[in-house]
Amino acid sequence: MNLVFFSLSILVVALSIYNSPFILSLLDQIPLASYPKPQYQDLILPSNLAFFRPRVTPSTFFAHKKSVNMTAPRAIRQVFLAIEQAEGAGARVRRSIGTSRLRNFSPFLMLDHFTIHPGAGFPDHPHRGQETITYLLEGAVDHEDFAGNAGTIEAGDLQFMTAGKGIMHAEMPRQNADGSANIGMQLWVDLPEKLKACEPRYRDLRAKEIPQIEVDDGKASIKIISGQSHGTDSVQELTYTPVWIFDVTIKPGGKVMQELPLGWNAFAYTISGTSLFGSAGKDQQTVEQFHNVVFEQEGDVVSVAVDPSAEEDGRFILVAGLPLDQKVVQHGPFVLNSQEQVYQAMLDYQSHSNGFERAAGWRSEIGKSMVR
């Protein structure tokens, strides 16, 4: 009888959370198709709950090797195109992390290159157990949550959000006078297990706060969003999970050599132009825009150049993060360490408890335009 009651409770919660296309899109799960073993394990659940089965990544998946060469360049593991898809309420995203090509690349959970046209956006939705980093490239995006926090980030700004034990918020674009889209990047970063239940927090980083340097005699510029580059440090304490982020632009004929912490997972996402990744020779790869370049953990330097004959600059974000040696169980906006914790998150969200108390009856002002 208890099992039947438990199953029915979970079913009610699942159906409640599935009540909008946006939440449904967050809860979409794609099985791992191509990545080093061990692969994901299916959890054993009652058959009537199988339609929203979470996925588990074994903790051994994140065990990292120590570099045997302290000055070695990082080799490229894989390069792939981020395919555009629908997301949220009318938004379009190019998702590269969080797909069958690259899932749970610890500590990274998802990377979206989003385009939000007028009338689209990301209305009210919950999170638990992760951090999100939003970097706006064009336009402006308003934010509002159930704790009364509200604000706007504009082109060049970032917002760092720690969901912790629970947050419900909305992210909606400003309606630009010329009708142009709002464009940016959003990265989801896993939280260490001991911080999954921390208090939610925000940190806005304005464009004017970001150090910018020039290298290679002015042929390349680096915005140091987080981390260190060529002796210059970023603003500190932006995320709980250690992450380095750089926005790099290279002119034709220019080159960048960027050091990264040993053993950290790293990738680059190409925003525009064509860049040459890797050391010159047979290991160098030509990469066009909208591609994700995933690096091996061995080595401590990433090398990128732009051909002198190129017609435009190459621009990309370079990101590295400390792998977390922990199990990942993700079900849409809930990222935890066991199936029981995911079920609890769903029940807490539905019952407005254990971090979601303020979600009861809350509706964002900025999200009301999306309510039908």
How would you characterize this protein structure?
This protein is mainly beta and 372 residues long. β27 (328-331) and β28 (334-336) form a beta hairpin. The protein is globular and about 60 Å long. It has three helices and 28 strands. The chain has helices at residues 2-17, 21-26, 339-351, and strands at 41-42, 55-57, 76-81, 84-87, 91-97, 108-116, 122-127, 130-138, 140-145, 150-154, 158-162, 167-173, 182-190, 201-205, 212-215, 220-226, 228-229, 232-233, 243-250, 255-259, 265-272, 275-277, 285-287, 291-295, 301-305, 314-321, 328-331, 334-336.
How would you characterize the largest beta sheet? 7 strands, antiparallel
Radius of gyration: 21 Å
N- and C-termini, Cα separation = 39 Å
Mean pLDDT: 84
Morphology call: globular
Question: What share of residues is helical?
Answer: under 10%
The number of helices is 3
- Our estimate of the beta-strand percent is 35-45%
Summary, kept brief:
The protein is mainly β and 372 residues long.
List the helices and strands and how they pair.
Layout: H1 2-17, H2 21-26, E1 41-42, E2 55-57, E3 76-81, E4 84-87, E5 91-97, E6 108-116, E7 122-127, E8 130-138, E9 140-145, E10 150-154, E11 158-162, E12 167-173, E13 182-190, E14 201-205, E15 212-215, E16 220-226, E17 228-229, E18 232-233, E19 243-250, E20 255-259, E21 265-272, E22 275-277, E23 285-287, E24 291-295, E25 301-305, E26 314-321, E27 328-331, E28 334-336, H3 339-351
Antiparallel strand pairs: 1-2, 2-27, 3-24, 4-5, 5-6, 6-13, 7-12, 8-11, 8-13, 9-10, 9-12, 11-14, 15-16, 16-19, 17-18, 19-26, 20-25, 21-24, 21-26, 22-23, 22-25, 27-28
